[in-house]
From TrEMBL, chain A:
Alphabetical keyword list: DNA-binding, Transcription, Transcription regulation
Entry annotated with the keyword DNA-binding: yes
Organism of origin: Robertmurraya kyonggiensis
Coiled-coil features, chain-numbered ranges: none
The protein's name in its UniProt record: GntR family transcriptional regulator
Domain HTH gntR-type residues, every copy: 8-76
Cross-referenced InterPro entries: Tscrpt_reg_HTH_GntR (IPR000524), WH-like_DNA-bd_sf (IPR036388), WH_DNA-bd_sf (IPR036390)
Keyword Transcription among UniProt keywords: yes
Domain of life: Bacteria
From TrEMBL, chain B:
A single MF term (Gene Ontology): ATP hydrolysis activity
Protein name: ABC transporter ATP-binding protein
Organism: Robertmurraya kyonggiensis
InterPro entries: AAA+_ATPase (IPR003593), ABC_transporter-like_ATP-bd (IPR003439), ABC_transporter-like_CS (IPR017871), P-loop_NTPase (IPR027417)
Superkingdom classification of source: Bacteria
From TrEMBL, chain C:
Highest rank taxon of the organism: Bacteria
TM helices/strands, residue ranges: 12-36, 48-67, 88-115, 135-160, 172-191, 227-250
Keyword annotations from UniProtKB, A to Z: Membrane, Transmembrane, Transmembrane helix
Classification lineage: Bacteria, Bacillati, Bacillota, Bacilli, Bacillales
Species for this entry: Robertmurraya kyonggiensis
Protein name: Uncharacterized protein
Amino acid sequence: MEEFQASKPIYWQIVDRICHQIVRGEIQPGEKLPSVREMAIQTGVNPNTVQRTYSELERMAIVESKRGQGTFVTEAKDIIIELKSRLQREIIEVFVNNMKELGYTKEEMIIGLKNFVEKEDRG
Amino acid sequence: MISFEHVTKKYGRETALNDVSFTLEKGKIYGFLGPNGSGKSTSLKMMAGLVFPTSGTVSVNGKKVDRKIAAEIAYLSELDFYYSAFTVQDMINFSASQVSDFDWKKAEELVAFMQLDPNKKLKQLSKGNRARLKLVVTLARNTPILLLDEPFSGLDPMVRESIVKGLLSYIDFANQTVVIATHEIDEIETLLDEVIAIQNGDIWAIENVEELRETKGLSVIEWMKQIF
Amino acid sequence: MTAFKGLYIKDLKLSFNGFIIGLFLIFFAMIASFALKEYFVEPSIPAIVSFIIIVLHVFYLPANLFTSLQVEAQSQLWLHNPNRGWKLFLAKIAAGITYFVASLIVSIILVKVFIVRTEYLGEFAGLSEMLGDNLLMIAGGMFLSSIYLTVWLLFYWTLYHALKRIPFLNQIRWFVLLVVWLSITIIGNLIKKIPVVKNLQELGTVNLYHFATIFRGNTVSPETAELHLGSILISILITVGVFLTSVWILERKVEV
């Protein structure tokens, strides 16, 4: 059973988790997702909520449900690429907003980010 | 569909339920939440036809509830009551004989799932295993309505988890209405569609769990802290 | 398995211990009676004891039912059952009768083996003859009286548990039962005095001459040997009425 944040709907938190797993490659394109019931048992979440998660993922075209077979992650590369860049955008957005709030300029942000990444590369 | 219309229950001067009206829809999981003595247990017993209102009407699918409702409702009591001469298998056989909707296959699966020994006497079982067995015979019935009164009370985390998993695995979500009365919200928060907050015999609020998070940014526990 | 069979087996299991204890008591009483016989050099003691054992069986069924009902009363969760109240009660009565008959048969065998063959019974010779020749009749009569007592027990038991939901009577439930019992007894006696009822009771009198001659000169008075079909009919009606009333109270008034 998994932990969930209080401030966001649970169905949305599961959508997020699945998206992250797809981007990380833990779930491959074309792979079958667990059934609603299985997913509910894994996460300890009400199946109605899981159903909502799957509907949302389907609406986002990240998964496709095949009648009688289950729900599968899309094989369309453009959608996966779009998902990747969306997640990136989201993280950058949070980062940028936090920096702005602390009063950093755009240039300072870019320099700081550059230094940080290079330092990490050097070990 | 379960509905309460101006239901009051009095025990002498004490009021267990005070002019309560609400409706529970088919195919949802409801959490009846409130402290001990808030009236949630009384409400469940009324739905099961085991306690009668002093005034007002309790009805299930349009029919006024009486003891016959047991054919449509599986009720799990909070009490650790059992026939001490029974074995696990005796209890299953007996439960199966009393109702027409008993699903033997489901019962067998559940016994295995809960890791119960069919030949063990009930008095030799731990309290946790007896609670598991209670859930087995309740879930093995294919009834439109399932009422669980304090299914976690006094049980260790292992048992609680097996009960939650049992519920998730064996409830027929599209067709069964489930009402869980509890004062321990942690275990079931993610399980619920709707929550009903009850205190001192009054219904304080009925809310959709996901909506609470979406519109108020609150988990059920936080919400409960706010309203009580 | 049918619902009734399921209930019946459950009820057999509920009072199995009581049955075993009952048998032990009977054996113990018999053994004690033989010990007393030796001690007091009074050969009739086992005969008297066995007679008492058989007569006490009138209370066997109500006692058995009471213990069985008390198990259910711990939670009253047996009421969460789609089967009707009469089925719940009848299954208990059926289980009780099973043990009642078994216990009675054991007792009768003991009587046959130990008492009737006792060579010297002195002034209790009549008792021995009675036990020897009319056991079935006595057992049958006791069985019917037992049923009659049992439905009244059901009635008072359900009433007692129904009163629980009325808080101001809850504390004085035993007193309420006493008042109800007194009222029923007084009203019953008044009804009995109505001439029509009296006539009805004496309707269809059957004289049991054979039975009566055996006891002439013994402790059993000749009237006992008269059977009134009218009063039997009335008893049957009362039994059914009290049973149905108990079922009604159980279904409508007893809460969990």
